[in-house]
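Support case: user asked for a sample of complex input and structure output to validate their parser. Sending the pair below.
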Amino acid sequence: MSLNVQYFARYRETLGLESETLEGVFASVDALRQHLLQRGGAWEVLAEQNIMCARNQDLCSLSEPLADGDEVAFFPTVTGG
Amino acid sequence: MAIRVQAAAFDPGAELNALHAANVGIGAVVGFVGYVRDFNEGREVAGMFLEHYPGMTEKALGKIIAEAELRWPLLRLEVLHRIGALEPGEPIVFVGVASAHRQAAFDACNFVMDYLKTRAPFWKKENTAEGPRWVEGRVSDQSAAQRWEDGR
């Protein structure tokens, strides 16, 4: 499967990356996150307890299943308003 | 129902008046305006930058508005949120709700702000004397949003 993965705010800055295309098989958002955590270093930020995520621009839980072509985003707690 | 996400400044008074215009069936209008403060978490704030997730922002606000319309009999609902660079004293967000009677407008406005705070993908980065810092989410915002779930 091919995924478009996006990072926002503090995560984007920490990782020095806005988005990337990833090829692989990931059963869930959390499986994708575990894969990214294996990169080590700055990627440890994705282990934060209050991480938020979205699948195809809808908030979701880490257990959300993934499908080919999905857009997945990781970001810290939102602070608008 | 309207959603606007914009870098440009806006006039909250004009927004509030426009909500009532051309509909004499509206008996109540409630407006909330959020402003940039010059002090937060123990530090002076010289300004801030608001980042968002283009596309998801509009989608998330649309879902919040749809949920509010399911819960209350509303005649109009507008959400306006700024992005980009902002200075202390400037309005960041406007939520305006119009209904026949006041209670629906009060409650829906409160609900939309609570959900916007916890579900819409905006992030504030403050400029302080010690340098820029990302604003962290508040537990009190989470519990404010949670009460709308508990009450169902």
